[in-house]
Amino acid sequence: MFSDGEKKRRVEAVRGLMQDEKLDVLLTIGNGCVGTNAYGCFRFLTAANVYYGLQSALFFPCSNPVGIVDSEISCGELKNAGIVTECWISTTPIQAIIDVLKESEITSGRLGTSLDILPQSWRMALEREMPGLVLCDVSEPLFRIRNHHSPEEVALIRQCGKLADAGYAEVLKNVKPGMTEQQVAAELEHATQGMGADYNFTLTSTGRFSLEDNQLPCIRAATMFDCVVAHGDCISMEITPRYNGYWTQLVRTISVGEPNEDFIKMHEVSCRIIKGALEELKPGNRIGNIAILPVCMWI
């Protein structure tokens, strides 16, 4: 998935962070959910996908990292990714974390982690078993590391954008009155996963758009509905594939069966707003000057 050079870059980056923050150990936690920025740190640092459950890994200043997972499947995924080569399997992960720390003779000092996703029960166990260990939040420094993208990462992000484009093109080609929202999503995700997406976070909504009597609701939850697309309806979509851990989101609304004059008008205004914002997005300009553009251009 990633080159040896990219994996080395990530390990060196986290060790540099540990030196800057004066950490004795770093605990990163992963979850399969679409959630806070902190969940992405586990995948970035381990290069491993989280299929289910709460996974974690301990990084040390000099020795190799150790993973703590709850199944053979997750252990194999972690090892195959190539950054974490030692993996403990446990149904009580916090106890395994404590055991690894004790085995590494780290019972005091500074432990860095993302406190906003650290389970309270884990925190209480660490404080009870190791009162000399100070828990430090390093969410922001970790996110800054992730924001420095390598050429290899940029190539993955661009490929993910192509997946989103392909999903949109597939819907345009196959959508027709009588289809359900589930079928629209199926067309979209068939294209993206066929090109290598490892997950899709798809949102849709259907109904007739109108400036005066709008029947197109806000985009619904990730679970598709069995609403049937009618002639003259619009379909709004958040097309969000994930490719090797990287997300791209493409938001599009289309008309089905016939042009919708109100929707065309809204589309034209939106294009003018985007063009105007691009002209104003420059150093020194105030956000308020850009935020007022939608009101000015709609009037």
Layout: helices, strands, pairs:
Blueprint: H1 4-20, E1 25-31, H2 40-46, E2 54-59, E3 66-69, H3 72-81, E4 86-89, H4 93-103, E5 108-113, H5 120-129, E6 132-137, H6 139-146, H7 151-174, H8 181-194, E7 199-200, E8 203-207, E9 234-239, E10 241-243, E11 246-247, E12 250-255, H9 261-280, H10 287-291, H11 293-298
Structure, explained:
The protein has 299 residues and is of the alpha/beta class. The protein has 2 domains: 143 residues, Creatine Amidinohydrolase, Chain A, domain 1; 108 residues, Creatinase/methionine aminopeptidase superfamily (Creatine Amidinohydrolase, Alpha-Beta Complex), CATH 3.90.230. Helices cover 44% and strands 19% of the residues. It contains 11 helices and 12 strands. The strands form 3 sheets. The protein has a 6-stranded mixed β-sheet with strand order 4-3-2-1-5-6, with helices on both faces. The protein has a 3-stranded antiparallel β-sheet with strand order 7-10-11. Strands 8-9-12 form a 3-stranded antiparallel β-sheet. A hairpin with a 2-residue loop joins β10 and β11. α7 runs antiparallel to α8. The longest helix is centred in the middle third of the chain and has 24 residues. The termini are far apart.
